[in-house]
């Protein structure tokens, strides 16, 4: 495959990226990283068109070809790095982004760069390698992400690109010292077009995989989580509790269940409206989650009821957590409704050797909660055997 054909292939990859990502972004405008992938695809199109212009023998001003073409090539990597920053929840510093691109364009207008193609390569390659290394560094920090498979594919793309750039850079340095034959120049340029094709295919292909994977994760989360409060809904509650009980039985540990009910919640809806009720639910969910450990799970159990699963937690620890939550709710304030004072009633139950059924454990916690409400609310009670006992 000759260089002109590779230029057309790169152009097709870029156009495909522009069209597909434009359609995806049209239906997912909150996914800001798509704009950077789209910009990278557009930059690839510009680079490829400039390559066709060069190979066609058409005369063009230096600011466009090769300076503009080199800027587009560097922009491709810069926009991909920016997309990775957005996906991995890191803020893009636009003054750095456009500063790097301005520097690259200025370097291509220096006397050194204007002397020869070799000099321009020596100027531009280090910038691209640095951008790729920064992307790899950011991706390596995401080892626990559910997108780690896609991230590994991107890392592979960057490594391949760095290897081909490093190889060409080394050959060009050797060429300057007459350590390789001048006939190798054509090979070096051909390797560059092959490298760009591989790099573009791998990165933009990984981008599409990333979009698909992210949408799959979001759909799953939407099924598993309550849309109002963001905590888990009851869909996976049976499986979660049964798994935890089985694991606790094997490891001789305890699982505790905490049932929470917002006191006088109906009065909140009746006096302040359902919007206020929704705010109250979200507030309670937020306050509770701040008091939990990373491996605890919170579920919206009913209208104003929440259930918390506390793995590896004996009764004494569960009671401490429950009472800490109760106090934080009582002392906290809704910024949108400072006049609204919320309290909660709490029931706690802990697994024992004769309790291996999650439904029975939930029933015990619910009984303790019911008793806490009957005894005046805003308190924590726990189920101990056949008795309901206050803290």
What this model shows, in words?
The protein is an alpha+beta fold and 391 residues long. The chain has two domains: 3-224, Rhopdopsin 7-helix transmembrane proteins (Up-down Bundle); 234-390, Reverse transcriptase/Diguanylate cyclase domain (Alpha-Beta Plaits). Helix content is 66%, strand content 8%. The chain is built from 13 helices and six strands. It has helices spanning 3-27, 33-56, 67-87, 94-107, 111-115, 117-140, 148-176, 184-224, 237-251, 265-272, 274-290, 315-331, 358-374, and strands spanning 256-262, 297-300, 305-310, 344-350, 380-384, 387-390. The chain has a six-stranded mixed sheet. Strand 2 (297-300) and strand 3 (305-310) form a beta hairpin. Helix 7 runs antiparallel to helix 8. It is elongated, with a radius of gyration of 30 Å. The N and C termini lie far apart (79 Å). The model has no long low-confidence stretch (mean pLDDT 90).
> Approximately how much helix is present in the residues?
55-70%
How many domains in all? 2
- Outline the low-pLDDT stretches: none
Structural class: alpha+beta
| Gyration radius, in Å | 30 Å
Q: What would CATH call the class of the largest domain?
A: Mainly Alpha
E-strand count = 6
For this structure, the CATH topology of the largest domain is Rhopdopsin 7-helix transmembrane proteins
The spatial strand order of the largest sheet comes to 2-3-1-4-5-6
| Rough outline | elongated
- Give the distance, in angstroms, between the N- and C-terminal Cα atoms: 79 Å
């Amino acid at each position: 495959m000759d260089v002109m054909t590779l230029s057309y292939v790169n152009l097709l990859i870029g156009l495909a990226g522009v069209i597909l990502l434009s359609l995806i972004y049209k239906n997912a405008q909150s996914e800001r990283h798509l704009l950077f992938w789209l910009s990278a695809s557009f930059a690839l199109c510009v680079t490829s068109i400039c390559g066709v212009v060069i190979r066609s023998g058409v005369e063009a001003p230096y600011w466009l070809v090769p300076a503009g073409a080199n800027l587009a090539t560097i922009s491709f990597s810069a926009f991909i790095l920016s997309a990775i920053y957005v996906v991995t929840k890191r803020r893009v510093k636009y003054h750095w982004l456009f500063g790097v691109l301005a520097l690259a364009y200025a370097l291509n207008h220096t006397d050194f760069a204007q002397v020869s193609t070799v000099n321009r390569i020596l100027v531009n390659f280090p910038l691209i390698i640095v951008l790729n290394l920064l992307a790899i560094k950011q991706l390596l920090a995401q080892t626990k992400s559910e997108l780690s498979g896609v991230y590994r594919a991107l890392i592979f793309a960057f490594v391949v690109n760095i290897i081909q750039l490093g190889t060409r850079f080394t050959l060009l340095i050797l060429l300057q010292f007459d350590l390789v034959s001048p006939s190798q120049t054509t090979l070096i340029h051909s390797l560059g077009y092959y490298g760009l094709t591989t790099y573009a295919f791998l990165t933009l292909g990984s981008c599409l995989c990333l979009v698909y994977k992210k949408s799959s994760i979001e759909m799953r989360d939407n099924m598993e989580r309550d849309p109002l409060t963001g905590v888990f809904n009851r869909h996976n509650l049976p499986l979660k509790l049964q798994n935890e009980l089985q694991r606790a039985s094997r490891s001789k540990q305890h699982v505790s269940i905490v049932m929470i009910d917002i006191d006088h919640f109906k009065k909140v809806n009746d006096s302040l409206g359902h919007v206020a009720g929704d705010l109250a639910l979200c507030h309670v969910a937020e306050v509770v989650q701040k008091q939990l450990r990373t491996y605890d799970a919170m579920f919206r159990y009913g209208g104003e009821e929440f259930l918390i699963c506390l793995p590896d937690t004996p009764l004494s620890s569960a009671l401490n957590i429950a009472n800490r939550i109760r106090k934080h709710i009582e002392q906290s304030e809704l910024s949108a409704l400072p006049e609204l004072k919320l309290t909660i009633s709490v029931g706690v139950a802990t697994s024992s050797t004769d309790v291996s059924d999650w439904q029975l454990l939930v029933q015990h916690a619910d009984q303790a909660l019911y008793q806490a409400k009957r005894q005046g609310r805003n308190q924590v009670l726990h189920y101990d055997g056949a008795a309901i006992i206050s803290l």
